[in-house]
Amino acid sequence: MNLLGAQIISATPVAVEIGLELRPDLEQQHGFIHAGVAWTIADNAAGFATQSLLAVEDGVLTVELKINLLAPAKGQRLIARAQLLRAGRRLTVARSDVYAATGSTETHVATALGTFMTMNGLADKT
Amino acid sequence: MNLLGAQIISATPVAVEIGLELRPDLEQQHGFIHAGVAWTIADNAAGFATQSLLAVEDGVLTVELKINLLAPAKGQRLIARAQLLRAGRRLTVARSDVYAATGSTETHVATALGTFMTMNGLADKT
Amino acid sequence: MNLLGAQIISATPVAVEIGLELRPDLEQQHGFIHAGVAWTIADNAAGFATQSLLAVEDGVLTVELKINLLAPAKGQRLIARAQLLRAGRRLTVARSDVYAATGSTETHVATALGTFMTMNGLADKT
Amino acid sequence: MNLLGAQIISATPVAVEIGLELRPDLEQQHGFIHAGVAWTIADNAAGFATQSLLAVEDGVLTVELKINLLAPAKGQRLIARAQLLRAGRRLTVARSDVYAATGSTETHVATALGTFMTMNGLADKT
């Protein structure tokens, strides 16, 4: 989160929204935002959604996350919205959608689906 | 590539190796390398492997890429090795494995599988 | 579709629902419906959703499809509902959710995300 | 396994090979083997590879499995070869490759990557 500068916009249990102001150094060779940035923000949103259901001393690790890139990401901000599909004691499954926004116009640029593991007693250090 | 500072180590048709010197700003909250960095280097290696078979004026876009994180990534360098499993006219399928290395010791930290699309006439601008 | 006996319940452009009456021979070793049946019905629903936007002479091939299993599948029927996330000229991205139903009670048992390719002139022979 | 008629060809710890004689009822609309059959045999091989490292009273459940279809599957037999990439106490990550064979000629038709969970005390009933 620090490297990219992403910030939590809103968070309710099982739904989290993260926003990231786009900067030139996050672009890849074709002038679009690098897919790795979309993957990271999708992962962050899903991880926070998982975290929101856990005890304060527990942490979250990403087991796996697949992303499909739907459209080139261009704009002022990148937004990720995550939703829990299954919240288990050990494993959580979350979907995370990424949008590129300019003003109030949003384009759906990526969708991700992944698995997250609860790490008992391993709280985030942030 | 620029943001992270990754570099191509070696490249033969259908097999590419990329290396990245690890830095504190690439770490996530548990002191390990952020999974987004592993995803990005896996994607880069697979994209370069795809590119290596194309005409100079053609480019590559990632359609989708799934990553499984196998172990925490800690070390001096992150290395991604990609291999083409199918090289089609339009779509290429590649596997990319990521290793964290300290000296000559390597740990397999992630494995990725994805689909890449040839963009005729859209060469990389780098 | 023939081996399993799945049937289309409803279909509108970009959203398709498929139903399958469950039978003992579709169960795996723990008494639940085999995950391969869930994958197949998820794939079928997404493929039909893709097909619904194409010309009659065009066909659809699955490029890749990932499934996350959310809960054991037990019940009278298995239902898959697919939704298109991106409908391109060549590639379509679809999400497909699978539910096990007994009477009017549904359990969300699996979620899938995949990529489908248009095959111009290769219409389904069914 | 019963519905499809797949059989274990060989199994060593962390590597399993499964074979399936192809039959007309496993074909889809284009005359090729249905992708669901490839997914199922890939899943079975990876599940058996995971099982091979467990105590006899423990079972295996598929958490998620992604498959990329590389070529149309046609032939006399379908073969899946699985390999463990990470064998943890709870979670195992496996790769599974599927080949269509006619005589001694093999075509690589699919590759899968997935996560499997150990179910302590839940042995397979087969």
Description:
- Four copies of one chain form a homotetramer.
- The mean pLDDT of chain A is 87.
- Chain A is elongated and about 40 Å long.
- Chain A is built from one helix and six strands, in the order E-E-H-E-E-E-E.
- In chain A, strand 4 (77-87) and strand 5 (91-102) form a beta hairpin.
- Helix content of chain A is 13%, strand content 49%.
- The first copy, chain A, has 126 residues and is mainly beta.
- A six-stranded antiparallel beta sheet of chain A has the order 1-2-4-5-6-3, with helices on one face.
- Strand 3 (59-69) of chain C pairs antiparallel with strand 3 (59-69) of chain D, so a sheet runs across the interface.
What topology emerges from the helices and strands here?
4 copies of one chain form a homotetramer.
Chain A: E1 7-12, E2 15-21, H1 35-51, E3 59-69, E4 77-87, E5 91-102, E6 105-119
Antiparallel strand pairs in A: 1-2, 2-4, 3-6, 4-5, 5-6
Query: Can you give the helix content of chain A as a percent range?
Result: 10-25%
Contiguous low-pLDDT stretches of chain A (5 residues minimum) are: none
The overall strand count of chain A is 6
Rounded Rg of chain A: 14 Å
Strand order of the largest sheet of chain A: 1-2-4-5-6-3
**Beta-strand content estimate of chain A:** over 45%
Taking the sheet with the most strands of chain A, its summary is: 6 strands, antiparallel
Give the assembly state of these chains: homotetramer
What number is the mean pLDDT of chain A? 87
Termini separation of chain A: 10 Å
> What structural class is derived from the secondary structure elements of chain A?
mainly beta
**How many separate helices of chain A?**
1
Describe the global form of chain A. Answer: elongated
Q: Tell me the series of helices and strands of chain A, N- to C-terminal.
A: EEHEEEE
